[in-house]
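Quick one: structure for this chain?
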Amino acid sequence: MKDVFSEQSGDYAKFRPHYPDELFDFLLSIAPDRENAWDCGTGNGQVAEKLSGYFREVEATDISQPQLDQARPQPNIRYSLQPAEKTVFADRSFDLITVAQAIHWFDFDAFYREVNRTLRPGGILAVIGYGLLHITPELDTVIRKLYVDILGQYWDRERKYIDENYLTIPFPYPPFPTPYFAHSVTWSWGHLTGYLSTWSAVQHYMKAHQHDPIAIIADELKDAWGEPAEREIHFPVLLRIGKI
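Got it. Here's what it folds into:
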């Protein structure tokens, strides 16, 4: 598993979007019980914190200590530095395992062996993510210019799985029908540019060129943004479900 987010862990916690309540309602409706959950690749604990409101105990793991340091403590969440592919958890420990915007970094085969070992019978694996944001046609055009034309060669090869809506990841579980979910947030101009700065390809570009690629499209992006202090941002939610 790659660690490409430790260096900007503070910005990641501040600017990255969350997931809609309807998604968690769905996961709760199909989980066999609400005793124990594992949020794998938890980052700053966004999903773990949400799960802690429903499950008796939540394990939250990551390979980035700086990311874990950004998580907000909760009495029923235990954060630990562990790889997704090999944990200390006992067999048949969990009713639900979640992986949010992280599975594309994993060793798939090793992770699925760990899932099969640690899920209880009837347990659920939920692979979650979000695709490229949408705002307005004008803003989307400028952001896609950044995403494809400027940063294209600087994305890690694993990013393709998100572009393909997680439909092409190796997934050894029978098809499980899922509703469509999207997430909408209201952001300022500063929040949008802060979010763009957390992209891993932006960090790779900056290391290669010693200047910020967002500056290349900043004027064009600002013109497309226009006068509003805030705009509504839309993220399509990616979801694959595996049931043991």
